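P.,

For your records, the input lines for the assembly:
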Amino acid sequence: MPESKSKGMGVGARRVIAYIVLIIISFFCLIWFYILLVNATRSHTELSSGFTPIPSTHFLENWKNLMAGTLPILNGMLNSVIVAGCSAALCVYFSTMTAYAIHAYDFKLKKALFTFILAVMMIPTQVTALGFLQLIDKMKMDDTFWPLILPAIAAPVTFFYMKQYMDSTLSISLIEAARIDGAGEFRTFNTIVLPLMKPAIAVQAIFTFVSSWNNYFTPALVLHTDTKKTLPILIAQLRAADWLKFDMGQVYVMIAFSIFPVIVVYLIMSKYIVAGVALGGVKE
Amino acid sequence: MKKSNVVKYNKWGYIFLIPFLTVYGIFQLVPLISTVYNSFFENYRSGLTQIGPNFIGVQNYISIFSTGDLWKYFGNTMIMWVLGFVPQILISLLLGAWFSDPSLRLKCQRFFKTVIYMPNLIMASAFAMLFFTLFATTGPINSILQQLGIISQPYEFMNHVGSVRGLVAAMNCLMWFGNTTILLMAGMMGIDPSLFEAASVDGATATQTFFKITLPLLKPILIYVMITSLIGGLQMFDVPQILTNGTGDPMRTSMTLIMYLNKHLFSKNYGIGGALSVFLFIITAILSIIIFRFSGNRDAVQKKAK
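Structure tokens returned:
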């Protein structure tokens, strides 16, 4: 451990060790994506002749072949965008509303309900999956997007983050001022509280979008029709197929296709996201 | 007059809670109850004939606990979790200490934090598929290792117990150490700076400060991180499922509990699946209670968040 080495060492030496270790760790975080990027640009023959770190020129060709193939990729991407987008929108709106109910009002069951929501925060969706599948079967929601979107309305983790954020930013006097101006409670929430919550809403919208975009367990159990499947299910199908016969260039393009949109959004928003992780604290 | 106004407003607390409670009730609570209910019935398909549902009491529980499969998969899950968690917490402690050490004044902190958190947002199934292709017998990693002269024959990563478990653990570590680092760093920043000043006045080295001040004061957060990671570890699914195509090979040594549950859900064996779900629910509940107890309820979580 560098700590033991640093005993009695000057700040300068410790700083050098820290940079070296950080660079090594960053290398191990990024190398996989670099190899993915390089391999996505190489043709199947180039790929089978061994690895080189220099990108080739076959990206568009791989892309066209993938589009012409049997996996409905574009459909999958569209489905993923619909499910993740709707989940994120519903989740942040209603979680903010739930947090506002607990934050701004005093009612008899407030404490009990707050404790209840905190208590159920850790229950994994997998342990209720069995009953969930039977239920959506009875509700005729099997093989539709509804069971993937609607449950986002009740998200204890997002609720908790919103509540934390309100505790530090939203003052009751502001709400009272709106009341004196004669605004209804629902209008106050939509026109005054929501805009004030924008930074928290942005962070949570991204988290919800990403976790829904990446979700594999539930969609794989709910969706059966090929054209309704989301990207993670198509990746699993790719893995289950006799992949040795596959054009590896296409395989890499498809993986890149599922990973890079999220990375691009993340890089644009990274400042807020990293700060958001520290504030939220309970993201799994 | 004023009081009645307050009461009039406060009924909105209930109104705003309606969407959450309705949706939670329908999509979480009802399924939870029916999962428990199912666990007491014999209910599966044998070929084309449907068996049950017949009430059989705790027979499903007896059969999952007696076959030994459950313990084997529980063991697999725990081994892979520990293999991933130990390096993860060590790296995170080290990086957290460096990032939050004012005397080091590391530059490019934002860049490093952005990079180390990035793997967390990657689609786990795509990441597993990527590792599967990279570590395939004819894949680039074998090709690089051969070019460097480290090995002469391609190593079959997917056919050895150690390498499959190691890959799953490495991916989990890579995906979660950034998140852990940020949490621990937030905790370290929350420690009263005068303690560090006092230590440096007394001539303590960085190592002594770390072990005598930072680590003991960080204990509640370390426990929180460890138990949330353990709960997450019990849910391990996407990575081993995709990496091994759901088989948990070699010889089901990388089959996790949720992969086992997933098999029963797909084959519609609701009795055994229900008993397995209840088992997982109880373990998660116990772990959650420990978090609540240890961290002095939610106050500690809030303190840490600052």
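Two observations worth noting. The two ends of chain B are 40 Å apart (CA to CA). Confidence is low (pLDDT under 50) at residues 297-306 of chain B.

Regards
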